[in-house]
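Reminder: ligand-aware prediction takes two inputs, not one.
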Amino acid sequence: MYEALTLVAAGMENYGAYSDTNNAIGGLGLGGFYIDQWYILLVIPAMIIALIAQARVKSAYNKYSKIGNSRGMTGAQAARMILDDHGLTYVPINITQGTLSDHFDPRNNTVNLSPDVYSGTSIASIGIAAHEVGHAIQHAEHYFPNKVRSAVIPITNFGSNISMILILIGLFVTAFNWLAWVGVALYSTVAIFQLVTLPVEFNASHRAMNHIRNLGIANDADAKGVKKVLSAAAMTYVAALITSLASFLRIFLIVSGSGRRRN
Ligand SMILES: [Zn+2]
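Here is what comes back for the chain with zinc ion:
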């Protein structure tokens, strides 16, 4: 569900799926052209927050993937039960390779669970499976923040790919200085993407908690563990937003600083 690094650097694709592939450090994709004071003051602290968030989700997962849920249900069974309860009997549940690689793919409307979640009977398995199903239900219900997020994805892909080139041209070619500001504006789309991702992710986890309780998939003790895993996961999205904001602010300060030096 939460993998780390390189969303922006890798560009594309990952924005498409609800890659719960997280990206806490993705916001840095175009940040690394040199180390400056803002990198040290803004980006490195944000990276540390992101790394802590990632470590916390891994540790929560490690703990609750070893504790069985009270009904002995697999993630796939829990996912099927919630989907069917919402009339989504046609949404398939696939196995996808990797650890914490679970995601819902809106392009083909499939829930994709990692092997340990799919066939595991742990507390983490039912929690993560229910979270991904939460995305499937959002998709089916045309949940509004989801639509906003989908609309932002192509803009972010475009913006993140082209912004650094424009900034570099703008910084080094005097006649095209204005291009640097176009680049800065486009770079802000990364932070905007992270921002509109937050309500979607929090809502998917909120739905997951309700469904596993209402359908009796989890008892109170299970639900407590699920909540810990999903809350830790949610923090990685907050960290991703902080990281992309820090990175944006740095780029903004570099470009405005270069303007002052010229004038
Ligand atoms: Zn999610």
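The mean pLDDT is 87. The longest strand covers residues 110-113. We will return to this case in the review session.
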